[in-house]
Amino acid sequence: MSTLRPPGNSDNSISIPANPKNPGTCVGSNSTRTSISLPSLKSSPRTDPKRDNFTILFLRQKSVILITDIILTEILQGIKNDVKFKSAKDYLLEFPIYGPKNTGTYTRAAQLYRDCRKKGKTVRKTIDCIIAAICIENDLALLHKGADFNSIEACTALRVIRNRC
Fold this sequence. Notes:
- With 165 residues, this protein is α/β, with parallel strands linked by helices.
- The protein has helices at residues 53-61, 69-77, 82-92, 103-118, 126-137, 147-155, and strands spanning 2-4, 14-16, 25-27, 29-30, 33-34, 65-68, 97-98, 141-143, 159-161.
- The protein contains six helices and nine strands.
- Strands 7-6-3-8-9 form a five-stranded parallel β-sheet. It has a two-stranded antiparallel ribbon with strand order 1-2.
């Protein structure tokens, strides 16, 4: 079991049991907002861990939490306060971070877009296709709130986690 803590604030730590049968869960994003509630981005610590959907979901899933480099950028660019930016950056860099393996990731993303179009679905954001391609090539399930990922899942091999918290 590993515990991730934002620097200097152990009240916001989350414990993540490792599960070798589940290689990982990629936390997705929607524009510049994070799709899920990252504890370190809250203005004050949560006093009731049962209300923290992020922690509950991953403790139930027994997943390893990771993010993509693009998601890291999207989350951080939306933080205006310098102190919160540094705290969030330090916290997020504790997670495993995945990126495109090579140019094949980008051609796979283009193919995902094309596959969706052939099935009558339009993906509005190229970045979502790239995130999906990274997840597929690394056999990762994606937690998200973006409609584009639902379209990609319906048309491709993308695996998603349904947030039922």
